[in-house]
């Protein structure tokens, strides 16, 4: 009998998170997709004909209290914000470092098979750019974590897709990068804008089946 997998998704309401959950619901290997969310899911955003989604509303400030939900096969972390959304660098770091790091720790504690999360192209703990520095720091923290053998990060550039909120500066960047995309070859290829669906697909490919 073919093994059926259980997945846990954090950040299921974001651009990549939505694409990921829909792909998991359409993936015959998965029987359950648990989504830890801040507010109830808008079911219209998800195609779930087999009723795989189990949405659990939680307080991420107390993520440790929900560690039982990490007793799955695969953990997908799509958590992330912007400094503008968060309101300050410390609030940004709380989401993009602290929450993601805790999720990895709970994955290890509950012995899930693998942990995949979204980082960023250019992530570097020594970067002068605060955003890229935080992304690099959390990569270092997770990838050096003992007894978490199957951890992997996807490092997308600018994300293509329909967001609920308007990100003016990011939209400008996407337009410019899209125009330059045909000449972004070789080492520059990683800076091409990428669709949320492509990132979600890559996250699933990185899991250990």
TrEMBL record:
Family matches, as SUPFAM superfamilies: NAD(P)-binding Rossmann-fold domains
Residue ranges of domain NAD(P)-binding in the record: 11-132
InterPro entries in the record: NAD(P)-bd_dom, NAD(P)-bd_dom_sf
Gene3D superfamilies on file: NAD(P)-binding Rossmann-like Domain (3.40.50.720)
Coiled coil: none
PANTHER family: OXIDOREDUCTASE HTATIP2
Protein name: NAD(P)H-binding protein
Gene source species: Brumicola blandensis
